[in-house]
Amino acid sequence: MPTNVPPQYRDAEQRFRDAVTIQSKIAALQEMLQIMPKHKGTDHLKAQLRSRLSKLMTELDTSSGSGKGSKTEPFSLPKEGAGRCTLIGPTNVGKSLLLSSSTGAKSKVGSYALSTQEPIPGMFPFEDIYIQMVDTPPITNRSTQSRLYGLLRTTDIFIFVADLTNQAVENTNESFSELKEWGFKLIEKNTDLEDRDFFTMKPTIIACNKADIPGALDNYEMMENKFGENFPLVLTSAEEEVGIEELGIEIFNSLKIIRVYTKSPREKLDNFEKKNPIVLPIGSTVEEAALQVHKDLSKSLKYAVLWGSSGKFSGQRVGRTHELSDGDIIEIHI
Ligand SMILES: Nc1nc2c(ncn2[C@@H]2O[C@H](COP(=O)(O)OP(=O)(O)OP(=O)(O)O)[C@@H](O)[C@H]2O)c(=O)[nH]1
Ligand SMILES: [Mg+2]
Predict the structure, then answer these.
(1) Euclidean distance between the first and final Cα of the chain, in Å?
(2) Closest by Cα among 183, 34, 146, 162 to 88
């Protein structure tokens, strides 16, 4: 243990020792990591704390589904739809209003700080699918941080919300550092997601909000210069419902999913209406699509007839290992 740590570190360490719940242990560890001075002498201790943190997070993940621990984990929400994206940011940036304008879900909007105290889910309609969107308490709120952490681990996509009228670049940098301290890796544009650790590596979109307020556009330019190369940026006004569609496109692209439509041999292609697609990860095969329809169907599957961009021609017969594309229509034959 290095002797040159500040007194606040000792306090946090004491809180860690006294902590009874996993969440308060996590919160104390997070604080210790944040307070610790950054120099070579603390590297080893930092690594130890991180490893403890990750063990506790695994415990939290496994205990939250067991029933008996449910009271300590009020931030666990059932996943719904084609994926989960979570709105993250400091207080008052417009996360709750963005949830309402994107999904219609009601989350308390307030001009005062810390108006949101717990996560609120909504469903974001994107073309013919729904994506779960979750509003959260501000990342800076210590009393909800450890539970927020658990929620973020189960999130597919981070949507960081920046207020263009309030030190957007500084606040984004600060929150990104915080998320990194928590052990998250913000995945940058065009990164290969294969073999990623789902719980810690997160594709991140930045919503630059309050675009309707005079002066916001100049700050958007600063955000673009600073972050535009590495992250998808969307200019939004939650107030005037601007940029919501663009946000949907970025979320869909970041989820790396495809939509596949199943047609029965009795249906005519001319009358076929593309709706209720099966949603699969990019790279999925005919067999995986059949498996989603029904377990038995994938076993008895002989071939599929395919219309769409993954085929060489319309109505092509393909086997179970054929890789599908977004928008494909398949007819499964057994
Ligand atoms: N002009 C304008 N005002 C906005 C916009 N988005 C949010 N606001 C206002 O900003 C204030 C904060 O909005 P909230 O949605 O409550 O912010 P929040 O990020 O959820 O805040 P916390 O829950 O405290 O973290 C409210 O007064 C909103 O009406 C926007 O795009 N334009
Ligand atoms: Mg809020």
Answers:
(1) 65
(2) 162
Taking the whole predicted model, whether its pTM rises above 0.70 is answered as yes
CB 180 within 8 A of CB 207: no
Q: What is the pLDDT of residues 68-89, one digit of tens each?
A: 433 344 466 778 899 999 999 9
- Residue 308's contacts (CB-CB under 8 Å, 6 or more residues apart) are 324, 325, 327, 328, 329, 330
* pLDDT tens per residue across span 117-159: 889 999 999 999 999 999 999 999 877 887 888 889 889 999 9
Index of the ligand 1 atom closest to the CA of residue 109: 16
Pocket test for ligand 1, best of 88, 91, 96, 140 (most atoms within 8 A of CB): 96
Mutate to test the pocket of ligand 1, among 98, 102, 109, 208 (most ligand atoms within 8 A of CB): 109
Residue 84 Cβ < 6 Å to ligand 1: no
